[in-house]
Amino acid sequence: MQGAGNDYVYIDCFKTPIETLGDISNLAIKISDRHFGVGSDGLVLIMPSNNGADVRMRMFNADGSEAQMCGNASRCVARYAIDNGIVDKPEFLLQTKLSNKQITVQPNGKITVNMGCPEILEHNVVSVSNSEYHYTAVSMGNPHCVIFVDNVKDFPVKEIGSIIEVHKNFPEKTNVEFAHVLNDGNIEMRVWERGAGETLACGTGACATLTAAAINGLTSEKALLKLRGGNLEILWNKSDNNIYMTGDAEVVFYGEFLIK
Asked: pTM higher than 0.85 for the full model?
């Protein structure tokens, strides 16, 4: 499935017991390989909840590391759960490693996820390749470093993002967003994801970018985030201080993977 081009392989662990999967981190590495595996940004397990939510997800990056949360994957899990009868209501709770997330399926089929409260960590400067980059660090349960640039299309995301990801300022590594504010309601961005490299989209990254833009006075608390794989509607609702992300989720294909 893919959400805004963020593509993951999903395993229905209601049908395939997790005990049969072996070393899940190793499986994520193999299955994500775009030449010798299926090819994806990572692996997501759709599971029964163990804390009272309606459905649970576990998400592994392409390098085998387990992530706390993935916004685009959460919409895809919601789509699968609705389409396959795991849940039968338009509003329900999704359990993630980070916390339970409120899911709402809109009448137009788009899915909204309450991504929770953003945490603004710091404003700082990082030096890379003889250049200084001012950034705003934001946590959406996972770390983000948001940098505003004049031309995101031609920006050397791999060169700069790969260095900042592992910079000493970020002891747990970080996702890195490069963003260009087009106007008050539109932001263009690219993302270097921790453990995955540049991806076509990142839901938590889009939320972090809107947060950084708003607190720096570059936009209001609502904008359309234009990513390489598609658009995400992000709203920072100041009444409850939560970020709401709305977007599509699409099944691409079903198949079998032989575990060797």
From this structure: yes
Which structural domains are found in the chain, ordered by start? 2-115 (3.10.310.10), 119-240 (3.10.310.10)
Determine which one of 13, 76, 145, 202 is catalytic: 202
| Selected catalytic residue, list 13, 70, 76, 207 | 70
Three-state secondary structure readout of the chain:
CEECCEECEEEECCCCCHHHHCCHHHHHHHHHCCCCCCCCCEEEEEECCCCCCCEEEEEEECCCCEECCCHHHHHHHHHHHHHCCCCCCCEEEEECCCCEEEEEECCCCCEEEEEECCEEEEEEEEEECCEEEEEEEEECCCEEEEEECCCCCCCCHHHHHHHHHCCCCCCCCCEEEEEEEEECCEEEEEEEECCCEEECCCHHHHHHHHHHHHHCCCCCCEEEEEECCEEEEEEEECCCCEEEEEECCECCCCCCCCCC
Q: Is 202 annotated as catalytic?
A: yes
pLDDT, tens digit only, all 260 positions of the chain: 999 999 999 999 999 999 999 999 999 999 999 999 999 999 999 999 999 999 999 999 999 999 888 899 999 999 999 999 999 999 999 999 989 999 999 999 999 999 999 999 999 999 998 999 999 999 998 999 999 999 999 999 999 999 999 999 999 999 999 999 999 999 999 999 998 899 999 999 999 999 999 999 999 999 999 999 999 999 999 999 999 999 999 999 999 998 87
To the query of whether residue 70 is one of the catalytic residues in this protein, the response is: yes
